[in-house]
Design a protein that fits this description.
Helices cover 39% and strands 16% of the residues. With 331 residues, the protein is an alpha/beta fold. A twelve-stranded mixed β-sheet has the order 3-4-2-1-5-12-11-6-7-10-8-9, sandwiched between helices. Strand 8, helix 9 and strand 9 form a beta-alpha-beta unit. Helix 1 packs across helix 3, helix 4 packs across helix 6 and helix 8 crosses helix 9.
Length: 331
């Protein structure tokens, strides 16, 4: 019998939709059959945003993840010192970025200590982080710093569709200039390891080209010939089944049709645009390469709809389910 994992869910910015989608998603009984959810967040925000929601599950304040074993039918909340925050839906308030960061940091500590089996993060705002003087541009850089991880990659999972980004939050010019064989090999290795951990039976990784038509044999650029193809060949020699480079305008359709389990995108928008076009509500952001499991919703704080009761919880549901999958299959 597989032990149910404890999944730590960070609430994110409380003036965004995090508290609402947490309330909505945790009405689903099947999640409690699969895991013990623990919220690092604010009970007042949870009850404020969900006061009109039927069948809202009762919150209970706890102080460490393992306490949830004594309250299996309730939602355990760990508030840290942030109990009296100001709730103003849709308003950017730097104190909320401070509290959200503290919740994330504590979740990372507990995940490293094995008190949490995985972390699922609700959205924060980069502008809020900057105004609060927090020296990170988002979750990924925080997690890398706090886990002392040098090689990590952003990825998007949506059922059988998966994209790993070779580069993420940098300008397109910098993404192109930074492309090199060794880093690309590391990206492919990280992607392959992730598929292995969730027991994909026949792994096939497609590699997107950087240039139109994957360079057309050097006609539209030499990166495919000089960097990408040699990286693929070396990975093949090391037993990683990866193929390409293929034109970016067709490789994602080939993945959607089942030819590949995963595609390596060369830069942020190359991977994000097709995934969000096809699977906006299904998408889950996964940080690969960390010593802990972290998944996230694939959307932002949505300040424009916060407090209106219309936020959809589908991405959070899929993020929790994927965290459970990784927890079940982790080494």
């Amino acid at each position: 019998m597989i032990k149910k994992p404890i999944i730590g869910i960070t609430m994110g910015d409380i003036n965004g939709i995090g508290p609402e989608i947490i309330g909505k998603v945790l009405r689903r009984k099947e999640l409690f059959e699969l895991c013990f959810p623990v919220i690092l967040g604010n009970i007042n925000a949870y009850t404020y945003y969900n006061k009109n929601l039927p069948d809202l599950r009762e919150p209970i304040k706890i102080y460490s993840p393992e306490e949830i074993y004594r309250h299996p039918d309730k939602i355990g909340f760990i508030e840290l010192e942030y109990e009296q925050l100001h709730i103003h839906p849709g308003i950017l308030d730097p104190i909320n970025s401070t509290s959200a960061t503290a919740w994330i940091h504590q979740a990372v500590i507990w995940a490293l200590e094995k008190k949490l089996d995985a972390i699922v993060t609700c959205p924060i705002t980069k502008e809020g982080l900057a105004k609060a003087g927090i020296p990170f541009d988002g979750h990924t850089t925080m997690l890398a710093e706090w886990t002392n991880t040098k090689h990590y990659r952003m990825s998007l999972f949506a059922g059988e569709r998966r994209v790993v980004h070779h580069t993420a939050h940098m300008s397109l010019l910098n993404a192109i200039q930074s492309l090199n064989k060794n880093d690309l090999i590391k990206t492919i290795e990280i992607a392959h390891n992730a598929l292995t951990k969730i027991h994909i039976p026949e792994i096939k990784i497609g590699i997107a080209g950087l240039n139109p038509h994957a360079g057309e044999n050097g006609l539209f650029g030499n990166e495919e010939l000089e960097i990408i193809t040699p990286a693929i060949k070396e990975c093949n020699q090391n037993g990683i089944p990866c193929y390409g480079p293929y034109p970016p305008d067709t490789i994602f359709k080939r993945m959607f049709d089942g030819e590949f389990n995963m595609v390596i995108a060369m830069y942020h928008d190359q991977g994000h645009i097709p995934m969000k076009l096809i699977a906006m509500d299904e998408g889950v952001n996964v940080t690969l390469g960390l010593p802990i499991i972290r998944t996230s919703v694939d959307h932002g704080t949505a300040f424009d709809i916060a407090g209106k009761g219309i936020a959809r919880e589908h991405s959070l549901y899929n993020a929790i389910k994927l965290a459970i999958d990784f927890s079940t299959y982790k080494e």
